[in-house]
Amino acid sequence: MILEYHRPNTLEQALDLLARAQPLTLPLGGGTVLNAPCEARFAVVDLQNLGLNTIATRGSVLDVGATVTLQQLLETPELQPDLQAAIRHEATYNLRQAGTVAGTLVAADGRSPFAAAMLALDPVLTLLPDERQTPLGDLLHLRTPMPTPSAAQAPLGTSSQSPDYPITHYQLPNALITHIQINTKPALAYHYVARAPADRPVVCVAAARWPSGRVRVVVGGWGDAPRLALDAAQPDGVEEAVRSVAAEAGDQWASAEYRQDVAVTLARRALESVLEEA
Ligand SMILES: Cc1cc2nc3c(=O)[nH]c(=O)nc-3n(C[C@H](O)[C@H](O)[C@H](O)COP(=O)(O)OP(=O)(O)OC[C@H]3O[C@@H](n4cnc5c(N)ncnc54)[C@H](O)[C@@H]3O)c2cc1C
Fold first, then answer.
1. What single string gives the DSSP state of each residue in the chain?
2. Does 156 contact ligand 1 (Cβ within 6 A)?
3. 70 versus 36: which is more confidently predicted?
4. Distance from the CA of 221 to the CA of which of 21, 212, 244, 266 falls in 20 to 30 A?
5. Is the distance from the beta carbon of residue 66 to the nearest atom of ligand 1 less than 6 Å?
6. What domains lie within the chain, and their CATH numbers?
């Protein structure tokens, strides 16, 4: 439940509000998670007047403001086609108009196509108040779960009877993301298996390959966040690495053995794609 709504015009004002011990005060991006009925009581700081909704290009790096929407990012011509595919898979057209890049990464669980594809690209986020440069892989572990709404309070569009609910969403305590730097140089491949094409993945793999030869492989589809299986100069040993991160991936949708087998196949395909592009 939202107790207070603030819309500051400067970052300083936003940080002062977010630093308060009481009530719990959270940044509000698109609000698609925070506006859902919830047992937790908190204040929100709407980021829309802070000028964080632009994308600047510096060489091969996109400097993406935290409140850039998923649709805005999707329409950026420099973006890798498979990152565009992962954004389309993440959310419907309507949700993409509201959901922000930072909000989606903070709220993401292990079934988030966008978080998986982004983690493969190893983006760096700028966090205030101390201007920390934090890789996405670290940020995912700094988050804490938001209280889960009861089944009767599931957000509009999700069925309280559905095995897709409850979904755990996350918050980032005492920090505000202002920018996300995405490198457009690496080739990216995103592959997944789901119950239906528009459904969230049961298993997904994102592989990125830099011109230097560096390869990163990420596996998702379960749990609290997608997982990095490999970050190396060569893709050697990728099958063992993928099997290892999926070793305890069993849940109500699939067994760990199934996910291990599928992830190995998807990783082979994804690596073939990025090696062909090189
Ligand atoms: C009908 C519907 C269906 C949905 N289905 C799914 C689904 O199946 N799976 C799923 O994972 N999600 C789902 N979502 C959730 C949601 O759409 C996405 O996670 C969304 O893109 C979140 O972005 P947002 O900007 O709206 O986040 P917000 O609601 O604004 O914020 C989400 C979290 O991120 C934090 N945050 C936002 N901006 C910042 C920042 N700059 N710095 C630090 N923290 C920040 C907030 O404090 C909050 O903790 C659904 C939502 C709706 C309404």
1. -EEEEE--SSHHHHHHHHT-SSS-EEEESS-TTTTS--S--EEEEE-TTSS---EEEETTEEEEETT-BHHHHHT-TTS-HHHHHHHHHHS-HHHHHH-BHHHHHHH--TT-HHHHHHHHH--EEEEETTTEEEEHHHHHHH-EEPPPPPGGGPPTTS-TTSTT-SPP-EE-TT-EEEEEEEESSSEEEEEEE-SSTTSPPSEEEEEEE-TTS-EEEEEESSSSS-EEEEEESS-TTHHHHHHHHTTT---SS--HHHHHHHHHHHHHHHHHHHHHH-
2. yes
3. 70
4. 212
5. yes
6. 51-185 (3.30.465.10), 186-278 (3.30.390.50)
Among 162, 100, 25, which residue's Cα sits nearest to residue 108?
Answer: 100
Residue ID of nearest Cα to ligand 1 atom 11 = 108
Question: Which numbered atom of ligand 1 lies nearest the CA of 66?
Answer: 41
For 264-276, what is each residue's pLDDT tens digit? 999 999 999 999 8
pLDDT tens-digit map of 70-116: 999 999 999 999 999 999 999 999 999 999 999 999 999 999 999 99
Look at residue 220 and tell me whether its pLDDT is greater than 50. Answer: yes
Q: What is the pLDDT at residue 148? A: 55
Binding site membership of 198 for ligand 1 (Cβ less than 6 Å): no
Closest atom of ligand 1 to 111 CA is 11
- Candidates 4, 18, 28, 33: which one to mutate for ligand 1, based on the most atoms within 8 Å of Cβ? 33
pLDDT of residue 1: 87
Residue 251: pLDDT over 80 = yes
pLDDT score recorded for residue 157: 44
Average pLDDT over residues 35-58: 93
Nearest CA to ligand 1 atom 19: 104
